[in-house]
Design a protein that fits this description.
The complex is a heterodimer of chains A (about 300) and B (about 220). Chain A has about 300 residues and is of the alpha+beta class. Helices cover about 15% and strands about 25% of the residues of chain A. In chain A, strands 12-19-16-17-14-13-20 form a 7-stranded mixed beta barrel. Chain A has a 6-stranded antiparallel sheet with strand order 7-6-9-4-1-11, with no helix packed on it. A 5-stranded antiparallel sheet of chain A has the order 2-3-10-5-8, with helices on one face. In chain A, helix 1 packs parallel to helix 4. The two termini of chain A are about 25 Å apart. The longest helix of chain B is centred in the first third of the chain and has 17 residues. Chain B is elongated. The chains are: A alpha+beta (about 300), B alpha+beta (about 220).
Chain lengths: ~300, ~220
């Protein structure tokens, strides 16, 4: 087990989330930075989809009540194990009774903690992820809190000390073209692509809200509801775009500025309030290439680990 | 020239089929074709998710490889598809009409509460699509006599099972949530249960009607 001594700002159990239920209004949930989840899991020779802890901001303390091996990835939130520094991207043995503490980071927002064998909470609708809005999955459908006990399988076997680097952080986010280009008009889309936005403090797992000091994106269009998904960028009439993330709803009536490409969406897991974000429209070919490059990074990691393990 | 649906590739693995501009007057007929199209696409097993919304369908592909094929075939599929190929289930929603806003709605329309109940429970509603939260159905068919502007101040918590009216729509809240609609009644029918093999009672394209329960607080399944 892992016992929560202090839950910090937001601590949840996540995996890749739910697919196949969007027509029923069920969100994806799941790790906002799935690549951090994948890398942390691969370092432990886990399955990519094994459940991990998503740690937002930090400031939490976890006590292990059995031996295991852990790997952290994503933001560096200054973790220590009984006072010893734990670096993201490396594997560490943990003994019964040891305490893993997170301070907070200077860059990035979310860290992912994988344990050998994955977190063993019950699967709901095909996923162990916590749906914070609909209140199911994870542990009782909620964020973890003090005294919660998270089931894990003890591990006393061998492990190899290995490390992996993350794909680079970007501030220039690439996106697919808008399906509502005719409605919104080219001048508005050009302005959008030329604007440096600030991440609003009012952002969460449902979406990252973006602010800017021009009123050039204000509009008065309203649309019949249409399907939206993580990566859809909505433009409400007030002109402040919203990048929908994993907990976002399944339909919406705001015009879409476009969709963040698959290779860049995970970047939104790590933006902090007041960070600057800019956008660049790319072609479908460029989006496919960027995804291949990211997949290549993960594939190389797998090869390197295979040679080590 | 007859207007045609707009079809957009949203990403390398998702498409938006938009028929919302085709017939402003008969949105239900368009929606029936959307359900039939959804059903057809589902049978191909090439999609992870198929999300009907208001006279549109968003299609999420399992593989990038099939994007161009679907961009090409969707227009002719739409021309050929018959709405009669889809048949939804009919649900009876047993409802206790004792919501705290029922008298407000009645007064607003110069009706008695019994007349509101009668009009609301007489209609057959179509589940256009689901969204907003798991199991929340956007229903078509609310009698114009009951169209009521939303509350000036949304409630912080509308209890699970509330049957409510907001503008031209009526609906059932599957879980506790904030909401600005007028509560006219409540039902014990469970609309969403994540632990059930079929988590949602109601699917897009189903029909339902509200069956008034006479005894206040009567228990039923």
């Amino acid at each position: 087990m892992i016992k929560i001594l202090k839950s910090g700002v937001l601590l949840t159990i996540q995996d890749f989330g739910r697919v196949g239920y969007r027509h029923l209004g069920v969100s994806k949930a799941g790790s906002l930075d799935p690549f951090a989840q994948i890398i942390a899991n691969r370092l432990l020779n886990n399955n990519d989809n094994d459940a991990v802890l998503e740690i937002t901001v930090g400031l939490c303390e976890l006590e292990f009540t059995c031996d295991t091996v852990i790997a952290l990835h994503g933001a560096d939130l200054q973790a220590t194990l009984d006072g010893q520094i734990i670096y993201p991207g490396w594997t560490y043995a943990v003994k019964n009774k040891q305490v893993l503490s997170f301070a907070t980071g200077r860059a990035g927002l979310r860290a992912y903690l994988a344990v050998k064998g994955g977190i063993q909470n019950t699967e709901v609708m095909g996923s162990k992820s916590t749906d914070l809005n609909a209140c199911f999955g994870g542990i009782q459908g909620r964020a973890l809190t003090t005294d919660d006990e998270i089931p894990i399988t003890p591990y006393y076997g061998e492990f190899i000390k290995v490390g992996a680097i993350a794909p680079p952080q970007r501030k220039l986010i690439r996106l697919y073209p808008s399906p509502h280009a005719n409605l919104l008009g080219k001048p508005l889309l050009d302005t959008f692509a030329a604007t440096a936005f600030k991440v609003s403090t009012n952002s969460n797992r449902m979406g990252v809200r973006l602010e800017h000091n021009k009123n050039s994106l204000v509009h008065s269009h309203s649309l019949p509801s249409l399907g939206v998904s993580p990566g859809s960028i909505q433009l409400p009439p007030n002109g402040d775009p919203i990048v929908l993330l994993n907990d976002g709803q399944t339909t919406g009536g705001y015009p879409l500025l476009g969709t963040v490409i698959e290779a860049d969406l995970h970047q939104f897991a790590q933006f902090r309030p007041l960070d600057t974000v800019e956008f660049k429209y790319v072609t479908f070919e460029e989006a496919a290439k960027a995804k291949q490059k990211l997949d290549g990074h993960l594939h190389q990691l797998s090869l390197a680990l295979k040679n080590n393990l | 020239m007859k207007p045609t649906p707009h079809i957009y590739a949203l990403t390398n693995s998702s498409l938006l089929f938009d028929a919302s501009h085709l017939d402003a007057k008969d949105k239900l007929s368009i929606q029936k074709k959307i359900w039939a199209l959804t059903n057809h696409c589902k049978s191909t097993d090439e999609f992870t998710d198929l999300v009907p919304a208001m006279n549109s369908l968003t299609l999420y592909l399992k593989s990038d490889k099939h994007l161009n094929k679907w961009l090409q075939v969707l227009p002719s599929l739409w021309d050929d598809i018959k709405s009669s190929t889809f048949k939804g289930q009919h649900h009876l929603i047993e409802t206790t009409y004792n919501g705290e806003d029922i008298n407000y709605v009645a007064n607003y329309h110069n009706l008695s509460a019994d007349e509101v109940i009668n009009i609301h429970s007489k209609a057959k509603y179509h589940v256009l699509f689901l969204g907003f939260q798991p199991g929340f159905a956007y229903l078509h068919g609310l009698d114009e006599q009951l169209h009521t502007p939303r509350r000036d101040e949304p409630r912080v918590r509308v209890p699970k099972g509330s049957v409510a009216i907001g503008a031209a729509q009526t609906g059932i809240y599957p879980a506790d949530t904030p909401g600005g609609w007028h509560i006219i009644g409540n039902t014990n029918t469970s609309l969403f249960d994540s632990t059930s093999a079929q988590p949602c009672l109601i699917q897009p394209g189903d029909t339902l009607e509200f069956v008034p329960l006479v005894n206040k607080g009567a228990t039923h399944d």
